[in-house]
Amino acid sequence: MFFWWILWIFYFAAYLYVIIFVIRDLFRDDKANGWIKALWIILLVFVPFLTGLIYVIVNGKGIAEREYEARRTAPENDSYIPQASSSPSEDIARAKALLDAGSISQGEFDALKSKALGNQYFGA
Q: pTM of this prediction?
């Protein structure tokens, strides 16, 4: 009994993945007009398994091209990761430069300074 529940959960997750994949690809497709996209979504609602299979067969090459283009133009994840400074003095120097430029207030500077020194919980 437990095995069948796990199997059905897996099938349902795979089914949801295919539905979401097809809808995501539909919205990426610039060549298809709105009526064609609406027809595919309506068919996905009423005959989901068969429609998903037919969509992949009919648009297979286009899916691959859109996936490649999306991955090629996606920004690198490394650019979103903030770079850690090598020392608290660098953090304080940057905060002081922001304070001198008028970008931050004295209170914000004090907060950044205490955070750089590791005193954010002591209010120093």
A: 0.53
